[in-house]
Amino acid sequence: MNPLLRFDSLPLFDQIRPEHVAEAIDALLEQANKALETVTATDFPAQWTEVARVLDVATERLGMAWGAVNHLNSVADSADLRAAYNAALPRVTEFWTRLGADERLFAKYKAMDVQSLNSEQRQAHRNAMRNFVLGGADLTGSARTRFAEIQEKQAELSQKFSENTLDATDSFAYYASADEVEGIPADVMQTALAGAQADGKTGYKLTLKMPCYLPVMQFAKSSALREKMYRAYVTRSSDQAPEDARKFDNSAIIREILALRKEEAQLLGYDNFAQVSLVPKMAESPEAVVAFLRNLAAKAKPFAQKDLADLRAFAREVLALNDPQPWDLPYISEKLKEERYAFSEQEVKQYFTAPKVLAGLFKIVETLFDVAIEPDQAPVWNPGVQFYRITRKGQLVGQFYLDPSARTGKRGGAWMDDVRGRWLRPDNGVMQTPVAHLVCNFADGVDGKPALLTHDDVTTLFHEFGHGLHHMLTQVSEHDVSGISGVEWDAVELPSQFMENFCWEWSVLQHMTSHVDTGAALPRELFDKMLAAKNFQSGLQTLRQIEFSLFDMLLHSSHKPEDDFMALLQKVRDEVAVVPSPPWSRTPHTFSHIFAGGYAAGYYSYKWAEVLSADAYAAFEETAAPDGTPSVETGTKYRQAILEAGGSRPAMESFKAFRGREPSLDALLRHQGMSA
Q1: pLDDT at 287
Q2: What is the pTM of this model?
Q3: Residue 480 buriedness (CB in 10 A; 0-12 / 13-18 / 19+)
Q4: Do residues 143 and 183 share a domain?
Q5: Number of folded domains that form the chain
Q6: Owning domain of residue 200
Q7: CA nearest 23: which of 37, 3, 9, 43?
Q8: Angstrom distance (rounded) from CA 192 to CA 181
Q9: Are 391 and 411 within 8 A, CB to CB?
Q10: What's the pLDDT tens digit per position in 459-501?
Q11: Are residues 218 and 142 in the same domain?
């Protein structure tokens, strides 16, 4: 039987093959279309549970099967799977677009007796009514047809953008000599040596994947090597790439996506796509977001200017670099940090073995949120993937897959995605428990030793686990608003960024370190140095995020799609950046968040959610024990107010239920060392 058509268990990832995709999607689209025709018939009752029992059950099956294919496309890309995915993508997109704009279904929802619904259903109903309008349900005739065409074309272009980014990254390799790689950490060198040998080459294979690229930029003594790697990285998928790699150029795709988004907005009666994007978010308007970003930029800029002045002085006085270039800055930063705080990232990394970090993460989650996390079993797509279950008082709460390692065919970055949501199923009355994917791109261990994580890697793991907790600890029974579903996009990063704070607490960190060779825990002295360096260059880092966020918001509001988007980026850089970028740098061409990842006119969410998460974490600082141990009572309150509530009420209501007031910028500025 086709594994994509089995719904009596978790996805059969070990059995799914490219040839299964078309057959399964055909069958599930047919079922979903039949369900749509059934519930939109005039004699079908306009009742929430009746519509859910027929339509939501069918569309959830389609969503789960397509979700499995989409997931494999991200973590186990192959030519055959990509072809099967791309062949099915237009048809799946067409169905969801048509469903979201079906005037008969819209009328059925309008006819429902909202007073008969419980509070969760009412919130889901409000969201559905809003989404029908945003999905084009009010459009007629040629406008409706064109809206559907735009959705399909955007899906196709976003997928191509993502493929070009992955292929451009995977296609680059530089085989460096022993002289060139001086200074690069031993574990990175070993992996690079093995990579070259596997390719039948001499030297060290350097790639643009983060576990290789970042250490090269931080530690390689050769400025020429750093420049080569930097140029390759910032010109990926662009017109500035080497001739043989320009087939991955995303320039035309970006322009077409922007034009389609503007056209979509105008069809819906808005001036620009940013206005459409903000309808389901906390922010009131593009102008309010721009004002927020510029206000934060004004506060951060003096700190960033001091950061840069420190770097340049150190480069000149200690490293004899009188004119440091952008590719020199990570190296200078690392050297300055080592001198100022007397430690290096490599020294810290030896204490963060992946199994110990995971055990420490589980311990803080279990303690604060009154759950148990245990190994579990499920079919997986790669031998390195682990599967776990979360229980409370013996009852299953949720399950998750953890895929930690970088590899060819797996897109870069880190993310949480849902396999299924919590749902009191209307077809059988059973409470369905949520399941999540947690995906990272860490380096594998070498010489039989466990994988070593940088402190940034540890923070990334906690971040994604925060998303996972939001999805899995929900107590909402309506799947459209359980977990992360229905949560405003600019609040969805609150639980993830909140969890990052624990990576800076000694009471937490001491339980998650073990030196790879000696087994010794992280010394308190080294932790204190890390803590002192925590806000090292926070001004520069803040401005970098604001640059991306402001570019994104202006790109989707005031920018004309036919105009040069690189000129807009330069204007933004002139306004907020303090580090000049080379004229050939093309960061938008791999900006997957906004062109292939759902963050269009929403990248500011990271900074806004930092305000929420810093303020939420301040509650733990205010109630911690004298030794810094977080309060279990505060953990319970946070779990109930934020995590368990999911999207069943507006995010601001959940925040105020936890903090008793609206959020303040003060905690963020204090946490990042930028308070007056």
Answers
A1: 98
A2: 0.90
A3: buried
A4: no
A5: 3
A6: 172-248
A7: 3
A8: 10
A9: no
A10: 999 999 999 999 999 999 999 999 999 999 889 999 999 999 9
A11: no
